Structure formats: structure tokens, C-alpha cells
């Protein structure tokens, strides 16, 4: 028998304790989860975090008890810091084989394949343009949306081309094995088609995509059965549990929303909070709306018009894009030449002539196509009978947590414009596919925030600060790596588009961007494929993950505050921007020398040294502190090359030595100031 909450409250010395217990109900997303797997993984992560608080102890629900099904829930006795007496954790397991009740599964997926564009090309920063009251006018207010869309389309195209490229490399296999000669084009297209089919077969087999998502979006009978399971799970909590938090991951977020918005269930009044984790609420709600009337046809029209309008404006501005790209590159080259030679050259890089020769003409046909497509898009979008998410009880605190890199959760703020929902960003290291399943790992702040809510306000404040800071660190790492990649791509594109003066130069520039992206993605595909084979076929686990280990160390007590500069943006800009300008100019200058007909070892050394200090300047401007130590190390290493640079460019070697001294001083002052601040603050846990 369960001990009453009133009796337990009398035993406690905490006057702030309420007269009841609390419950966590975890709901899994799509996939072939087994019963109690969600309780062991998600509930276990929450349990371990609760037990880190002083005075809390586990009554039952260890991993062994759950695995051997000795216990179907977790119970933790909460100490003085919590406002509740006990915490109960249960799961709702709804995954099963729906294939017998669903027909034409392949056709259903194919007719909705275009919706992948929503997942790939947008994130929560683009939510302004999708507001129904704003129509599409928000598109013009946020140019970053179009740029990100263009970059992601380019990456998607490069991904397909990389698979085609791999197919070309494999053309020798049929001849070696079967003495059959195939053309490179034919074999490349064949590999591309097979890769796409295998990808969807794997996704559907691993995550039951065609079954689980379709049940939620289009099958009312099966959906009712799932919602009944949630009702039964809530009913099974002990009577002492007066408040329940539903923690729903991926598709579970949509299922929890449907349950709480339905008037048919009476036990939902016990739910006081809904936490969507990487929720599929937006994506599945969109699919559900496409089942109505002409909405599916309208969505295909929107998709085709959207792609055509994007590429039409891309071709319309290609001459301007090419000219601006060439102008910026040439101006930096000219400045780099002056820094190195201490004089201007009349023939080197010819930036002035490029500026005056630039033809800022725009392809009017492409512009008209863009305007027409955009107008039709607005009309079709307004005519769609798209229903936003209904409000749930106002007594329920509704929050959605997602990483900006999570391809599923990041679109919910775009597609669901509901003022009742509070959206929170989570910083998690990893790629867009792995992040979605990593919210309850040791390097995620989600368990910290959820557990802190049942303790004190000060704990919750510290957990939210931790989450905000790690998200900032994750985004900062992403931006820094993006700069490095774009430096590589831009250098190659500039070189490749100028090797041959014949042909359409803007098109050659685009082709160059695509080619280098294809090469990078091909290497990444090979890397991840190798990791997958080693881990799954040979049962080998990689324990070396420095980034994830670093994030985990912040969560378990290391001072994450030291990763942020205590100085204002003005000071960081004053120190970092001159170094950036100086190093960027020398970087492009040395790059152009290496790409020329005659180059020397000094050009390669100058290339790497300027790159090191270029990255250091970006780290300073973006607010890194102790993270900049690695750039000091690189700078010390580069000291060995400075004498060699000094043989040709004495002033450059001396300038970089002075810059290194300034960076060391900056890092030291950051450390001293942060050390003084953290003496008066407590660790997170």
C-alpha cells in the first residue's frame, strides 16, 4: 500500500513542501521501442539526476529491476530540497506492429516525400515568415532565411551529387566481378537511386516511419487506442500523486497534445505540465492537416513553386553574386599584397577594374518568374485549410525543448504558432540526425531542467542558465566551423572559376561551390558509414568523444562560465577585428600565391600562420575565453615558423609576435576576471 502524502509531509522539516507526491510520465517517439525501454532510458536519466540531490534516495526502479520487469515504475523518496514527498516515474508504451491495419504504405510515403523540405531547409529562426497573420511578407524582413535556405539546398544537392560521385568510383566493380562494362553516368544514377531507396528502407525499418507517423496523422481508430493507453498510464499513478508532468519525445509530443486537447478523458486534470522534447508536434500536425480535402495537392504546388522561385532568384542575381564575391576577394588580396610588400601593385588582383567592370544586370525573366511564383505561393498558402494546434487547459504549463540542429523538433516553432507554448533551445553536440535521440544523454541539460522544477527555484534558475549557456556554446562552435568550411569552399571556388576564362563565370562559380561541397560530403559519408559498420557489425563502441565529454563536464560541475568572455562586445571587437582584417588579407594573399604558376614554401607557411590567427580572431570576437587556449598553443607552435617568415617578411613576423602577446594577455585577463566572479557563485550541482 502507498503511504499517504499527508503523513510523509508531517515527517518533513521543509515548510514549503506541498501535501502530495509528483509524477513523471515519459512517452516515447517513433521506433520499435520495447516495453519498459523508455522507462529505463529516459526515466533512468531522470532518476539518476534526482539522486544527485542530497537527501533523495531510490526506493525501487533500478535498471536491473526494470530490465527484468520486476518493477514497472520508479519511486524516489525526495529530501528537504524538493517541494514534493515522493517522485513516481512511469512510461506509456504505444509502439506496436500497425502494418496489418495500414494499406498502401509506400504510396502514402511517396505522396508526402516533399515534406522533407520542411525538415531540411528551415529551423526555428524562420518562424516569422510562417506566421499566418504576416503572410509571406516576413520573408523580405529576414534575408537570413533565404540565405540559409539556399545553403541547405546547395548542401542537399551536393549530398545527392556525392552519392552519384561514389557510384562513378564504383564503376570498375561490375567489370572486375562480372566482366560487364557500364557507363559512369548510368552506374552513378543507379547507385543514387539505390541509396535513396535503402535510406528509406532503413529509416522505415529502424523507426517504423510509414507505420507510426501514419497512425498519428491519418488513422483515428489506432490513434484512439494510443490515447487510451496514456489515460490508463495516468490512472495507474498512486492517489497521492496530485500533479503529473508528461515528458514526451518526438512523436510522443504530438500524442500527448492530442490527449490533452481531447474532451473525452477525465484523468487529464491530474496533468499540470507538458514538456515536448524534440517534439514532432509541428511536422505530424502538418501531415494530419494534409489529409483534409485538397491540402495535399496544394502542398505539392507550394513545394514546386517554392523550389522554382528559389532557383529563379538564384539565377537572377548570379552576376551580382559573382561580382561581389570577386570584389571582396580581390580587395582582401590587394590589402594582403600591400601588407606583405608595403606597396600597391598596378597589376596584382586588379580590384579597381573589377569594381568598375561589374555588370549589375539582373535577369528580368528570372525575376518575373520569382515574383509570379511567390504570388501564387501566397495565394495557395492562404487557401490551405491549415489548422494550428488547439489550446490545451490553461492550467497546464506547456513547454517545447529542441536543439536548432534537430531536424524534427526545430520546425515545431515554425508550424505551430500558439502563444500558450513556451519554446526553449537546447545545446547538444552532434549531427542533425544524432541530436534528435540524444536529449537524455549525459551531455544534455534536459534532465537537469526537468528535475530542477520539482526542487527549488534557485535550482531551476541555475539549470536554465546552464541550458542557455551550453546552447550558446554549441551555436558558437557551429558558427566557427562554418567559417572554416566557407573559407575552404570560397578559396577553391575562386580558384576553380578563374582557371578557364571561357564559359559563364557565375555558373562556374556555383559549380565550384557544389564540387567542393560534394567532396567534403563524400568524405563525411565514408566516415559515418565506416563508423556505422564498425559499431554495428563488429560491436565496437567509440568512447573517445571530446566534445560530448566536455559538455558532460559542464553539466556535472565544471565552470561553464569560463567559456564566456567577461568583457563587453566593444572590447572584444576592438581586439579581434584588426587581427581578423590583418590575417584574412594575408590568408587570401598567400592562397592566391599558392594557386599561381610560381609559389614558394614561404607562401604555405604564411597560409597556415594567417589561418591560425584568423580563427583566433573569430574566437575572440565571438566571446571565447579559455577555449582560446588552443589558439594560443597554435600560436606558440607558429612561433617556430615566424623566424622563417621573418627571412622574407620581417614586419609580418614581428606583427604576429605582438598579436600573440596581446591574445595571451586577453586570455589571462579573462581567466583572472572569471576566477574572481566564480568564487562568489556555486556550482550547478
Describe this structure in words.
- The chain is an alpha/beta fold.
- Helix content is 60%, strand content 7%.
- The protein is built from 27 helices and eight strands.
- Strands 2-3-4-1-5-6-7-8 form an eight-stranded mixed sheet, sandwiched between helices.
- A hairpin with an 8-residue loop joins strand 3 (74-77) and strand 4.
- Helix 24 packs antiparallel against helix 25 (629-639) and helix 25 runs antiparallel to helix 27.
- The longest helix is centred in the C-terminal third of the chain and has 41 residues, at 457-497.
- The protein is globular.
- The two termini are 34 Å apart.
- The model is unreliable at 1-13, 132-141 and 679-685 (pLDDT under 50).
Keywords for this structure?
685 residues, alpha/beta, eight-stranded mixed beta sheet, 8 strands, 60% helix, disordered N terminus
Amino acid at each position: 500500500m502507498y503511504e499517504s502524502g499527508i503523513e510523509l509531509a508531517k515527517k518533513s522539516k521543509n515548510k514549503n513542501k506541498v501535501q502530495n507526491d509528483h509524477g513523471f510520465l515519459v512517452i516515447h517517439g517513433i521506433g520499435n521501442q520495447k516495453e519498459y525501454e523508455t522507462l529505463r532510458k529516459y526515466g533512468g536519466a531522470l532518476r539518476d539526476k534526482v539522486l544527485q540531490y542530497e537527501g533523495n534516495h531510490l526506493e525501487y526502479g533500478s535498471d536491473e529491476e526494470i530490465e527484468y520487469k520486476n518493477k514497472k515504475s520508479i519511486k524516489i523518496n525526495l529530501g528537504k530540497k524538493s517541494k514534493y514527498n515522493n517522485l513516481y516515474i512511469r512510461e506509456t508504451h504505444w509502439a506496436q506492429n500497425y502494418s496489418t491495419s495500414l494499406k498502401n504504405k509506400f504510396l502514402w510515403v511517396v505522396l508526402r516525400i516533399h515534406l522533407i523540405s520542411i525538415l531540411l531547409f528551415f529551423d526555428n529562426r524562420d518562424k516569422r515568415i510562417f506566421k499566418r497573420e504576416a503572410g509571406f511578407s516576413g520573408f523580405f524582413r529576414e534575408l537570413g532565411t533565404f540565405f540559409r535556405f539556399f545553403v541547405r539546398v546547395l548542401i542537399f544537392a551536393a549530398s545527392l551529387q556525392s552519392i552519384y560521385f561514389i557510384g562513378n568510383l564504383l564503376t570498375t566493380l561490375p567489370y572486375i566481378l562480372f566482366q560487364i562494362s557500364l557507363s559512369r553516368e548510368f552506374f552513378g544514377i543507379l547507385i543514387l537511386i539505390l541509396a535513396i531507396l535503402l535510406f528509406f528502407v532503413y529509416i522505415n525499418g529502424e523507426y517504423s516511419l510509414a507505420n507510426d507517423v501514419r497512425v498519428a496523422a491519418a488513422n483515428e481508430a489506432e490513434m484512439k487506442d494510443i490515447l487510451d493507453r496514456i489515460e490508463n498510464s495516468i490512472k495507474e499513478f498512486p492517489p497521492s500523486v496530485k500533479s503529473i508532468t508528461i515528458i514526451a519525445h518526438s512523436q510522443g509530443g504530438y500524442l500527448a497534445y492530442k490527449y490533452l486537447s481531447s474532451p473525452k478523458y477525465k484523468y487529464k486534470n491530474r496533468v499540470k505540465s507538458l514538456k515536448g522534447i524534440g517534439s514532432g508536434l509541428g511536422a505530424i500536425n502538418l501531415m494530419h492537416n494534409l489529409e483534409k480535402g485538397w491540402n495535399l495537392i496544394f502542398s505539392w504546388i507550394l513545394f514546386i513553386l517554392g523550389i522554382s522561385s528559389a532557383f529563379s532568384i538564384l539565377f537572377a542575381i548570379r552576376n551580382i553574386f559573382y561580382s561581389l564575391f570577386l570584389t571582396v576577394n580581390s580587395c582582401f588580396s590587394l590589402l594582403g599584397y600591400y601588407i606583405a610588400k608595403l606597396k600597391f601593385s598596378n597589376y596584382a588582383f586588379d580590384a579597381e577594374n573589377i569594381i568598375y567592370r561589374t555588370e549589375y544586370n539582373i535577369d528580368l525573366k528570372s525575376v518575373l518568374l520569382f515574383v509570379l511564383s511567390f504570388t501564387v505561393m501566397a495565394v495557395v498558402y492562404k487557401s490551405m485549410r491549415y489548422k494550428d494546434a488547439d489550446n490545451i487547459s490553461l492550467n497546464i504549463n506547456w513547454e517545447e525543448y529542441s536543439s536548432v540542429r534537430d531536424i524534427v523538433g526545430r520546425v515545431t516553432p515554425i508550424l505551430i504558432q500558439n502563444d500558450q507554448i513556451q519554446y526553449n533551445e537546447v545545446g547538444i553536440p552532434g549531427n542533425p540526425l544524432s541530436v534528435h535521440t540524444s536529449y537524455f544523454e549525459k551531455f544534455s541539460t534536459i534532465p537537469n531542467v526537468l528535475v530542477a522544477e520539482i526542487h527549488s527555484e534557485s535550482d531551476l534558475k541555475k539549470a536554465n542558465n546552464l541550458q542557455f549557456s551550453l546552447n550558446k556554446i554549441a551555436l558558437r562552435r557551429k558558427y566557427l566551423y562554418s567559417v572554416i568550411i566557407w573559407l575552404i569552399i570560397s578559396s577553391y571556388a575562386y580558384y576553380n572559376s578563374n582557371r578557364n576564362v571561357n564559359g559563364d563565370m557565375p555558373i562556374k562559380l556555383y559549380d565550384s561551390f557544389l564540387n567542393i561541397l560534394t567532396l567534403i560530403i563524400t568524405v563525411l559519408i565514408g566516415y559515418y558509414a565506416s563508423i556505422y559498420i564498425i559499431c554495428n557489425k563488429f560491436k565496437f563502441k567509440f568512447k573517445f568523444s571530446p566534445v560530448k565529454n566536455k559538455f558532460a563536464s559542464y553539466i556535472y560541475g565544471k565552470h561553464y562560465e569560463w567559456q564566456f568572455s567577461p568583457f563587453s562586445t566593444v572590447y572584444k571587437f576592438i581586439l579581434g577585428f584588426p587581427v581578423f582584417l590583418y590575417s584574412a588579407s594575408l590568408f587570401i594573399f598567400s592562397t592566391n600565391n599558392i594557386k599561381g604558376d610560381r609559389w614558394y614554401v614561404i607562401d604555405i607557411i604564411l597560409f597556415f600562420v594567417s589561418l591560425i590567427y584568423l580563427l583566433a580572431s573569430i574566437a575572440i570576437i565571438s566571446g571565447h575565453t579559455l577555449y582560446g587556449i588552443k589558439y594560443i598553443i597554435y600560436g606558440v607552435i607558429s612561433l617556430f615558423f615566424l623566424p622563417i617568415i621573418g627571412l622574407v617578411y620581417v614586419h609580418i613576423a614581428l606583427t604576429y609576435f605582438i598579436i600573440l602577446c596581446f591574445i595571451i594577455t586577453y586570455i589571462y585577463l579573462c581567466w583572472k576576471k572569471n576566477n574572481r566572479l566564480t568564487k562568489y557563485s556555486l556550482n550547478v550541482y
